[in-house]
Design goal:
Structural class: alpha+beta
Strand order of the largest sheet: 1-9-10-11-12-13-14-3-4-5-6-7
Number of helices: 4
Order of helices and strands: EEEEEHEEHHHEEEEEEE
Strand content: over 45%
Oligomer: single chain
Shape: globular
């Protein structure tokens, strides 16, 4: 969910540089159930904490691209209540809810089927949680904050919110990467550890094999350092593994995204 602070991905603006390029396809595996796992380790309420979301996804052909069917199977968090409850309040209503995203031929999520129905299910889930917990409890306060965020969200932002966890899979699909000196990057980073600031750096090709491109991203700016490693399939164009380390104010967040067969 892109708009939430614990799930903020890095959307890099890649600037061209003089170098040889390697083309990356976009050919997702069809009809295969895949496990998509996102794990974060970061401080929450003063304690090192772990947050995990596990999804099942599947790609199928559609007339103008693909259908990505995704279901959030489970969420886990070992953080203190003040850290864990906002996470559960935001993602809890989506557990077990099947989403069907429309993905174009270039790997962009351009729509989701039955958005109104899905959003109504999210709102109903939040209302059920709100009714179950006292308003002055950690869970009650967390639900109220998430509900206020969702209520203020314009309809056109709902797709971006729902698609935010999946778009990083397609970060390089149908594009190319530069060999040699790599490419310069500019983006914004910092949340949830610090206020977002502009960071700059480079994306470089660290290694390659017949099946995989290993890419390294290093960025920095105003007290924030970010490193990201990507393992990109040369057959499908999907990011099969992404490890991001964000350091700000002496605190570090490490997020790992992995895509694999169950």
């Amino acid at each position: 969910m892109r708009a939430l602070p614990f799930a903020l991905p890095l959307a890099a603006l890649i600037q061209p540089a003089a170098a040889n390029t390697i083309a990356i396809p976009f050919a997702p595996p069809l009809g295969q159930r895949l496990s998509y796992r996102i794990e974060q380790e970061r401080p929450a309420a003063g304690k090192p904490s772990r947050f995990v979301a596990t999804r099942t996804i599947q790609f199928d052909r559609a007339e103008a691209g693909y259908i990505l069917t995704a279901t959030l199977d489970r969420i886990d968090a070992d953080a203190p209540p003040a850290g864990a409850e906002p996470y559960r309040a935001a993602l809890g209503p989506l557990v077990g809810l099947q989403l069907r995203f429309r993905v174009d031929a270039r790997g962009r999520i351009v729509g989701v089927d039955d958005l109104d129905r899905i959003w109504a299910s999210v709102v109903a889930g939040l209302n059920s949680m709100k009714a179950a917990y006292p308003p002055d409890s950690d869970r009650g306060k967390a639900v109220q904050k998430v509900q206020a965020l969702f209520d203020a969200m314009p309809p056109e932002s709902r797709l971006a919110l729902l698609a935010g966890e999946f778009q990083p899979l397609f970060l390089f699909a149908g594009g190319d990467v530069a060999d040699g000196q790599g490419r310069g990057l500019k983006t914004v980073a910092g949340a949830p550890l610090a206020r977002p600031v502009q960071v700059e750096g480079a994306l470089t090709l660290a290694a390659q094999s017949a099946d995989t491109l290993d890419l390294d991203e290093t960025l920095a700016g105003d007290g924030v350092q970010v490193t990201v490693h990507y393992a990109v399939s040369r057959r499908t164009g999907l990011v099969e593994r992404q490890t991001r380390s964000l350091t700000a104010g002496g605190r570090t967040l490490v997020e790992t995204r992995s895509l694999a067969r169950p």
